[in-house]
Structure formats: C-alpha cells, structure tokens
What does this fold into?
Amino acid sequence: MKTCLSIATVMIMVTTVASAQDVKSEPRFKAPEPAQMLRLYPKEARKAGLGADVIIGCAWSEKGRLTCRVLRETPEGQGFGEATVKGFEAHGRALDVNTASAPDQEKKFRYRWTTK
It folds into this structure.
C-alpha cells in the first residue's frame, strides 16, 4: 500500500517559547517554511500517521546562523527532534543580528508536526 502525503495534508506549527530570561537585544527570527520541513518528516512516523511536539533551543552566530539542540520531544525516539533541529539549522535564521548569542543565551522554539 503506497501512501502519499502532500503539504495540504500536513499542518506544521511553529511558536517561540518566551522565558523570563529573554533579552531585549535579542534578534528577530525566521522559521523554516512548511515545505522545507515537510521534506524532513520522519518516514516511519509519516507512514504510521504520527505527529509530535518538539521544543528546541537555538543559539545564533554573528551572521544569523542557528545552532540548535532538542530540549523536549513527544513522542521520543521517532526522529522528530532530529528533524526539527536539522530544519532550523538549515533553513531558520536570526535576523538583524549585531552579535552572536552569549554562551548561556538561546531562543526556544516549539514545533508541532501534525498529519491530518
């Protein structure tokens, strides 16, 4: 049985997670486009119709490049955390950057993978 998945059948949502530690001089951020993330949807999870909720933390360089890590992934072990990091590092950006993030500074993003 062959399964096809189009952009219209996948809803992917991104929100930033604010914290009390947010710094006013923090840059704006551009999240990856849904089509870019769709290409990274874990194959086995897609076949099983699984979605996920992922929170990542990202630091940024002086040029706006993101370096991210998984903070939480539900469900775990389905490849969604790794796919989210890969998508944000390849296609996400920090905009209007003056300096790189401090060693203890990162922006948190919540990414929801959902099939319909």
Remarks:
- The helical segments are 34-38, 43-48, 80-91.
- The longest helix spans residues 80-91.
